[in-house]
Request: fold
Amino acid sequence: MEDPKRMEEGFRQVPLVAGEKPEPPVEQREDIRNERKMVTTQQHEESNGGEKPKEKSKRIATLDAFRGLTIVLMILVDDAGGVYARIDHSPWNGCTLADFVMPFFLFIVGVAIALALKRVSNMKYAVRKIIIRTLKMLFWGILLQGGYSHAPDELVYGVDMKKIRWCGILQRIALVYMIVALIETLTTKLRPTVVQPGPFSIFSAYKWLGGFIAFLIYMITTFALYVPDWSFTIRHHDRLESFTVECGMRGHLGPACNAVGYVDREVWGINHLYSQPVWSRLKACTFSSPESGHLRPDAPNWCRAPFEPEGLLSSISAIVSGVIGIHYGHVLIHFKGHAERLKQWISMGFGLLIIAIILHFTDAIPINKQLYSFSYVCFTAGAAGIVFSAFYILIDVWGKRTPFLLFEWIGMNAMLVFVLGAQGILAGFINGWFYKNPDNNLVNWIQDHIFNDVWHSERVGTLLYVIFAEIVFWGVLSGILHRFRIYWKL
Reply:
């Protein structure tokens, strides 16, 4: 056994990292350990990337609250968007409440990655953990949105492999997470430990190489790729009917002939794309626009066609959303004062909003979630930065944490609420216990008799049901789970 004195000397000979305090005397360490037990830790972060920190740091509550807000928005727009079309996804150009959900997810994933990988002590371990987590997200994404699960509306499961949907929300998050986390890990030796003072020093310290490459791939492909005519087949009244969409052009940003859809048709196959795209709510497709309705007699053929909103090329563009989130995380790491952080965050947020507005209203590049256009990236990332800054001021600067506890609890168990709540797995399980017919179940009874009948309005009743029977329910349940330190992490 080594001599304790030699071990003590060995600790003192280790060079100090910039900003790190030297080891305290032995007699003070026990007191410090007791104090550290009272400090909230980063144990719920997206990944520790192989990092084995010597000291636990105070958790930024804004991270969980923002993540929880995103889950809440997803539940709200998914379950109330059917009766309030104005908050549902924009049929094409434009941006509604639902269109902020995906980029908000990617933004906070980027922030969490920057914090989790600020030190990487074992690169092989970090890379292996990133790959495993990516595969887990892909598995759950395909299981939940590939067509296997039919919850909560149908009490069946299973999918025809000839029509399985390979893309989806978790699949896009997995791709963005993998790319930006690997870049962050593999460039760990190139990252500075100290950033020089100055308004643009954080930009010169970190090179946005990954985001720039993703931007170039997306822009060149979108405007240079030739899109030929294409055909598709749908089942109509027990018979197959074929349709042809005439294109033969480049750089088109409309629904029919854009490069985003063409890449997905070629890579995945048209049978593996999302079969109910939101463009069917356009005026060209239905008189009920912006709500869903029967197709017009003169509706163009593409109104009936499938389209993948989380496809390959648009997911490459989505990498930029994650990179912007990484930048906000870098600011959080290197700027210790509230004022310095907020100055960086807010100025960048408004800068991105201005770029997006100029691109959209000059018709250069319209804001479009389905294409994940560059203006959409800027607009939603700018909005995410402003909302994140506002949460930071209210929660971590002013200490107004109580009003946001519901968001914070949901954010701590985001995966559980996403799977069981947003994807309807719990509601589907409850629907399985019905009386006489599948529609006579507890979920429908609560919505019809406690909300719709009381307010004599399906629209108001549905909104209140989503708020109280879903969002508040999941918030309280997440709070209880947090009380017992129960979390579901990938």
About this structure: The two ends are 39 Å apart (CA to CA). Residues 458-483 form the longest helix (26 residues). The first strand starts at residue 226 and ends at 227. The beta strands are 226-227, 230-236, 239-245, 249-250, 434-435, 437-441.
